Amino acid sequence: MPADPKSEYILELENVSKYFGSVIALRDVTVRLRRGEVHCLLGDNGAGKSTLIKILAGCHRPSEGTFKVDGEPVALKSPSDALDRGIATVYQDLALVPLMSVARNFFMGREPIRRVGGVFRLFHREHAEEIACAKLADMGIKVRDAEQAVGTMSGGERQCLAIARAIHFGARVLILDEPTAALGVRQSANVPGPARKASPSSSSPTTSTTPIRSATRSRSSTVAAPWERSARERSSATRCST
Ligand SMILES: Nc1ncnc2c1ncn2[C@@H]1O[C@H](COP(=O)(O)OP(=O)(O)OP(=O)(O)O)[C@@H](O)[C@H]1O
Ligand SMILES: [Mg+2]
What we know:
Bound molecules: adenosine-5'-triphosphate, magnesium ion
Shape: globular
Strand order of the largest sheet: 2-1-4-5
Distance between the termini: 31 Å
Helix content: 25-40%
Largest sheet: 4 strands, antiparallel
Low-confidence stretches: 197-203, 212-242
Number of strands: 10
């Protein structure tokens, strides 16, 4: 239950820093996300984009600063803690298991269950395969066999699987770390639409990171450098943070 449903911001980082020993990965970062906004985080390699994403996703805790969800300061203990609060993430390394099937990867940790004899709880394979194939088809990916190992898929297909999974389970906030790096033109074009539809009310903020070189190629509409934004874009709900 959100602490303050009327809070203007769904997620806030205030003066957040992250240190790994003597490495300063982030220093004094402030980010605020309102419902319905799409943010793009730009930065060179090693700038700290993934570290910021991992803080939002509950993988890392900030060394300094405050992290608020719905206006309430939180200390997320794990990614599943973040998921429980509706913060879904597609990581740069995709977090897939190559030896497991498409359907198994799609539902990893949130498997649909069917009961046998009222006692045994088994993985509902047919249901999982049907949903996984349908959601990938929405992304423009035709899966030959939902039982095929993810290791047999191309890099772009794997990226679509990770994005489709996050969209399917991402209730309120969808975070994408370099979401279109391995995608083709058609699949890249499919990312912003489903991302905006991630919640039934279409009110989820979406945060996407990209290296500056990709942003200047502008393969995705979620990617725009602040100096390129038109007045119309500035007045719309799409925000761009550096
Ligand atoms: N677990 C860690 N331990 C030590 N240093 C780390 C760790 N994670 C990140 N760093 C360092 O923090 C800095 C920021 O890394 P990060 O992965 O956030 O960059 P990035 O902006 O995502 O880069 P890229 O565009 O290459 O993905 C880098 O110098 C990196 O070496
Ligand atoms: Mg990164």
